[in-house]
Amino acid sequence: MFNAGAIVKVLISNIPNAGYDYRLNASADIGTFVSVNVMNRPCVGIVWGIGDSNLPPEKIKNISVVHDAKLNVIDLQWIQKMSEWTLMPLGMILRLIVNVPDAFMPPCMEQLYSFNFENKTRMTENRLAVMDAFASNDNEPMTMNDIQNIARVSPAVIRTMIKNQTLIPAGEIEKKKNTDTVIYNDCGNIKLNNGQQNAADTINKSILDGGFSVNLLDGITGSGKTQVYFDSAWTAYKNGKSVLLMMPEIALTAQFMSRFESRFGAPPVVWHSNLTAAKRREIWCGVLNGKIKIIVGTRSALFLPWQDLGLIVIDEEHDGSYKQEDMGNYHARDMAILRAKIAQIPVVLASATPAAETIENVNVGKYNHLKLTSRFGGAELPTISTIDLRENRPEPYIVDNAEQTGFLSAPLCDAIKETLTKGQQIMLFINRRGFAPITQCKKCGWTATCPDCSVGMTYHKRVGKLLCHMCGRTAPQPKVCPDCGTDVSMRGVGLEKIEQEVNIKFPDARTALVSSDIITSRQALERLVKQIENGEIDIIIGTQILAKGHHFPNLTLVGVVDSDMGLFGTDFRACEHTFQQLFQVAGRAGRGEHKGYVLLQTYQPEHPVITAICNNDRDLFMNADMAGRRAAQMPPYGQLIAIIVEGEREPVLQRYCADLAAAAPSLNGGKIMGPITAQIYQIRNWYRMRFLVAGGRNSNLQPIVAHWLAKVKQPANIRVKIDVNPINFN
Q1: Rounded to 5 degrees, what angle do the CA atoms 663, 668, 669 make?
Q2: Does domain 638-724 have CATH number 3.30.420.40?
Q3: Which end of the chain is more exposed for a tag (fewer CB within 10 A), N or C?
Q4: Domain coordinates of the chain in residue numbers?
């Protein structure tokens, strides 16, 4: 405990260095939240230790406010260890925790608005997005900024809705709310089968015994993994512990919420990116003061100020969305395990297709392996087979008197027709948004590319525009080539083109498109899910947004339009990721009383990924894939650190990278490769170069990389990103 007047080091959110010295105006402990001024700007930080700047006392500023709240010792150790592993500055990690900067600020004067659900104004797509934003937050009043951020609409849309009284004023002060303690009960309405009960008993024993453990809950799709970890969550909760149920954003569906409420008697408190500022503050403070003890959330929920955390569950632990690549690079699954190890609590990793790193940790005995081998309720696994596109070329079709290339083969069309006749539902999967990924001149070869990024722009027919999937820039679709005036053609296939083909070949079928740029809110997704459950949709055409987390009893046929799409990427994980994606998609079929069928269109039916899926033999495929990695010393048998250097001016970028290359150390048992231009050289007008540091499984590369980068002065207009064990090599 430091007394008033003591000089302490304060770690400040979002400031990269290791902190500044301040003078306490009240007693405080290490980890205590404080408000300070940096360059006359109010900031929140924590007391990190004894001041060590050796500045004259008169030059040391006073702390503005010492708050009656603090992080515990486990959090402080975790911040330090996470920084050492990821090489993220301490202040950037604290920013992830203090992600509600106004939690300690007095409420500001700002106009709030509510949605007028009785207003009969015509609802455009943008206005529906605003309505969804309010519906997903129980019509809690929002500021214009909240509405804009959550609904992803322009200020002009909001102003129009205010003018026509679709949005109505709801006060001028955003008041803090005193969150009531959220109380749950075990409704006892689920009876686990023997396999589920054995898995739950193992996890529950680790919760009650205390100590660190990692438990892989490895169950085929539809095996009831959710009910197993619900059982363990209840065990931790009833013993006074807090529980984090972490999952990918898209898994936060109405189906999951309903299952949670059915089990625990009240809806979950949900943490995700589309909450209002007031709601974020309410939940953050509720976790800090211990009134909220169970959170269902995305990766950022890991950084809430947890009190007495007793269990972390990571659902779909293989999912790539757990990897953060914007505000610092970290893998939430790995950082959750690190936090659990420091806190000496158990972790549950749930997946039907575990990551290679997880499987290896099971193989070497670091993780417990809990297997669920049958579908819950007795549903059969689907029959999976291939359609060889070399022998079954899709037939063309006619649109506006012009012949269009087809992408649905005759066997797949026959299966769709038969399924429709039975009154059952179909899902067609293609993991590519838009209508066509390439717009090109037939004569001179001109291609529509983004002026800010070195990627092609995708044509989206629904909005009639070209869209850059990197930066979001839009442009009109040209009718003729801007260079030579010849007609342009649209090449390749996206889900909108599949919709066009389906509408021509099955004109009576009711279809729905599902992708991240069409379904922009959880409410919109829930409306669609309800339509599917009610039998209002016959054919769902979607990307990976529907690949997991959904249960549609009447969906019996899944058709994968292009099973080869991800097989031949430059990433050494390409086959693993393709297998996981296709396996999860296949798992949507036949989850009810009707038998399910999955058809994979492919030019490579003999490919190990395709044959493994058809034979439902995940382990054989993973063993073969990992043997290749072992030989090449790729993760999980080696360690990689990517260093991405970005600059607004190419000469400065190239000169700095040359200086880094000249200063690169030699590694014992490892190597530093690069610099090379990044696969996507330009993003948002920043040019990009890459280094890759490779070492053995037990290499301690981080201190070497930190020392190397510190030797070369970094220009002001250069950004350096460090990515430990990257999963994106763009």
Answers
A1: 120
A2: no
A3: N
A4: 7-104, 113-169, 194-378, 383-432+493-627, 434-492, 638-724
| pLDDT score of 107 | 60
Residue 173 has a pLDDT of 56
CA nearest 320: which of 548, 508, 160? 548
Long-range residue pairs from 673-678, CB within 8 A, at least 24 positions apart, any chain: 674/643, 675/645, 678/644, 678/730
Of 169, 157, 159, the C-alpha closest to 124 is 157
pLDDT tens digits for range 384-402: 999 999 999 999 999 988 8
Q: To which H or E segment does residue 65 belong?
A: strand 65-70
Q: Which CATH superfamily is domain 7-104 in?
A: PriA, 3(prime) DNA-binding domain (3.40.1440.60)
Task: Determine the pLDDT at residue 653.
Answer: 97
Q: Which CATH number fits domain 383-432+493-627: 3.40.50.20, 3.40.50.300, 3.30.1360.40, 3.40.30.10?
A: 3.40.50.300
Joined together, the tokens standing for residue 303 give 């950084």
The burial of 45, by beta-carbon neighbours within 10 Å (0-12 exposed, 13-18 middle, 19 or more buried), is given as buried
Q: Which among 1, 33, 637 is positioned nearest to 289, based on CA atoms?
A: 33
Q: What residues of the chain score a pLDDT lower than 50?
A: 176
Structural contact between residues 302 and 244, judged by C-beta atoms closer than 8 angstroms: yes
Residue 245: C-alpha distances to residues 315, 533, 629 (Å)? 7, 25, 31
pLDDT at 106: 65
> What Cα–Cα distance (Å) separates residue 627 from each residue in 360, 604, 613?
11, 21, 19
With contact defined as beta carbons under 8 Å apart, do 595 and 555 qualify? no
> Are the C-beta atoms of 720 and 643 separated by less than 8 Å?
yes
Q: Say if CB 35 and CB 67 are below 8 A apart.
A: yes
pLDDT the model gives residue 37: 92
Backbone angles phi, psi at 141, to 5 degrees: -55, 140
Q: Which long-range contacts (CB under 8 A, 24 or more apart) does 569-575 make?
A: 570/679, 570/729, 571/727, 571/728, 571/729, 572/629, 572/632, 572/634, 573/356, 573/727, 575/608, 575/609, 575/621, 575/625
pLDDT of residue 135: 84
What's the token pair of residue 481?
């080539």
